[in-house]
Write a structure and sequence with these properties.
Layout: H1 2-16, H2 22-33, H3 43-56, E1 60-64, H4 70-77, E2 84-89, H5 92-104, E3 111-115, H6 118-121, E4 135-138, H7 145-154, E5 161-165, H8 181-195, E6 199-208, E7 211-220
Parallel strand pairs: 1-2, 1-4, 2-3, 4-5
Antiparallel strand pairs: 5-7, 6-7
Helix pairs in contact: 2-5, 3-4, 7-8
Bound molecules: S-adenosylmethionine (SAM).
S-adenosylmethionine binds next to helix 4 and strand 2.
Length: 223
């Protein structure tokens, strides 16, 4: 079974390359006990996000879609002492679990969870004095991905890294006639990127413990 092999290989790399640890394991356990869906990024993907944020030297990170804070803590770990992360979550139960996980990870002073539909809370970020993020991770409801991309650009500067997760939809991203709103949301997101001269981007397909999926990576140009 090929997906079992993907999982076993993920476990092999994760074990060898330390993509997990007691704090991260506890977060997944807490999320599961709280009844949250296991739709967090995989451990090696979480560490990949961490490494990307480190590569970027990110100081201000925005995440759209917190769940239990698993990816949030990975990204938060990449921040310097004066770094900051804001994460947006619609579901107050998810946000509460995430806040507790963030506290246990020792990152409460750097990370703020803002509860509410992201399209309502995104416009409030400038009022908080943050006009530009240098790293933005989009991982919430896919039908709203086109709007999230517009907001990401609004809150970006030259060099801002923008990542959009789950863009493969098990391959259905190429079905133009799909009736799945998430597929259509991702397709519109890709169309926007395709027409957007201000962002340099690519998309990568992935396999692993979370199945067949993929992400978009973009960098806002210097214009
Ligand atoms: N980034 C998380 C991780 O890897 O650990 C996983 C996020 S999960 C895929 C998507 C989250 O987005 C869910 O917790 C869901 O409640 C939240 N969400 C859905 N619609 C939303 C909206 N309109 N605004 C903000 N968050 C939303």
């Amino acid at each position: 079974n090929i997906s079992e092999k993907w999982n076993d290989v993920d476990v092999y790399f994760s074990t060898k390359l330390h993509t997990t640890d007691p704090v991260m394991d506890l977060i997944l356990k807490t999320n599961s006990e709280a009844g949250l869906p296991a739709i967090d990024v995989a451990p090696n993907q979480g560490k990949f996000l961490y490494l990307l944020a480190k590569l970027k030297g990110a100081k201000n990170i925005l995440e759209i879609g917190t769940l239990g804070g698993y990816s949030t803590v990975w990204l938060g770990r990449a921040l310097p002492d004066d770094g900051r992360l804001i994460t947006l979550e619609y579901n107050s139960k998810h946000a509460k679990v995430a806040e507790e996980n963030i506290r246990k990870a020792g990152l409460a002073n750097k990370i703020e969870v803002i509860v509410g539909p992201a399209l309502d809370t995104l416009p409030t970020l400038k009022e908080k004095g943050i006009s530009t993020f240098d790293f933005i991770f989009i991982d919430a409801d896919k039908p709203n991905n086109p709007q999230y991309l517009k907001w990401a650009l609004e809150l970006s500067g030259p060099g801002t890294v923008i990542i959009g997760d789950n863009v493969v939809r098990k391959g259905h991203v190429i079905d133009a006639d799909s009736e799945d709103e998430s597929v259509q949301g991702v397709r519109q997101f890709i169309d926007l990127l395709s027409d957007e001269s201000r962002i340099d981007s690519t998309a990568i397909q992935t396999v692993g413990s979370k199945g067949y999926d993929g992400f978009v990576l973009g960098i806002v140009k210097n214009i």
